[in-house]
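User: Design a sequence. Structure:
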């Protein structure tokens, strides 16, 4: 039996589809029943009968921050995919990020140890990878730096430390560090907002760039690593390193809209994050752009995927094909 935490998110829902399609017995956590409807939508992108696969999942309502709700998740479980996380770059959300990403992961690790779980796969992020140096791609062993790190990155890094602590106590673990994950179904959050933005025919794009990966490749890599004998390792999952301009050009071409052509000047970003900070202090508005986010746009981060390809002979899929698929589902 396999447990998937965060099964109602982008990665979790696609992982559940892969596992159920291949006949695995799966338990998944959820927080609200409305979230399960999103999973049904995602399944519907790939099959005409999503309900059949959805019925194979044992759903358990649980919150990884509430230790008392978690034991029922682990009944009969041998393998765990820990996908649950809170994503936010607003400094005001730091306590909640610590509670979910770091302390929640510690709870999962402790229960894995208690229930003699055979292997844990933790979904981290490239945000927890040390920055790349000029002319060289970042690798898994890059030195970690808190300089300009977002609150999200800080808590994902600390969550990884909890996983490594579990490995020292005898738990078999593997960590994946995906780039920005592209996949259909969550158009109002995360990478889904790129498709919304491009569809509106916006004229401006943010500077900089980062690593992008398809949700299919994230799922395939996770499953392959769990089925392998590899342990106590982490792997960067990135199909391609793109600038945001290049990404919007790819999306716009598939949505049949004009791509943004004006790079937002750095001085505008510097002004905006200060105004945004003031709006937060005076009006209590959520932060849209922080100082650390702005500094991050000054540099295009590059990531290497060589370690994964060499470890399990992994072949990444076609990023353009996934973007086209996402655009078709977005338009539908």
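Assistant: Done.
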């Amino acid at each position: 039996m396999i447990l998937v935490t965060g099964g109602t998110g982008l990665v979790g829902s696609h992982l559940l589809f892969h596992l159920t399609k291949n006949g695995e017995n799966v338990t998944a956590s959820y927080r609200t029943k409305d979230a399960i409807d999103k999973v049904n939508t995602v399944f519907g992108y790939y099959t005409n009968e999503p309900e059949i696969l959805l019925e194979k999942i044992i759903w358990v309502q649980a919150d990884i921050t509430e230790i008392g709700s978690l034991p029922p998740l682990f009944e009969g479980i041998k393998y765990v995919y820990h996908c649950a996380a809170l994503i936010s770059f607003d400094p005001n959300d730091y306590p909640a990020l610590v509670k979910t990403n770091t302390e929640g992961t510690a709870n999962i690790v402790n229960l894995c140890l208690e229930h003699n779980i055979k292997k844990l796969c933790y979904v981290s992020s490239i945000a927890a990878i040390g920055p790349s140096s000029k002319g060289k791609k970042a690798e898994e062993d890059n030195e970690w730096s808190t300089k300009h790190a977002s609150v999200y990155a800080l808590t994902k890094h600390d969550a990884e430390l909890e996983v490594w602590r579990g490995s020292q106590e005898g738990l078999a673990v593997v960590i994946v560090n995906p780039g920005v994950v592209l996949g259909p179904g969550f158009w109002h959050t995360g990478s889904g907002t790129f498709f919304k933005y491009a569809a509106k025919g916006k004229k401006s794009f943010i500077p900089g760039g980062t690593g992008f990966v398809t949700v299919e490749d994230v799922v395939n890599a996770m499953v392959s690593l769990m089925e392998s004998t590899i342990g106590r390792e982490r792997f960067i999952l990135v199909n391609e390193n793109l600038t945001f301009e290049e990404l919007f050009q790819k999306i716009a071409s598939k949505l049949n809209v004009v791509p943004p052509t004006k790079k937002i000047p750095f001085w505008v970003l510097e002004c905006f994050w200060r105004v945004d900070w003031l709006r937060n202090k005076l009006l209590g508005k959520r932060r849209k752009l922080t100082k650390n986010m702005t500094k991050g746009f000054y540099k295009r981060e590059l990531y290497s995927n060589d370690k994964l390809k060499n470890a399990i002979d992994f072949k990444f899929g076609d990023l353009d094909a996934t973007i086209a698929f996402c655009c078709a589902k977005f338009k539908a």
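The first strand starts at residue 2 and ends at 5. The longest helix spans residues 94-114.
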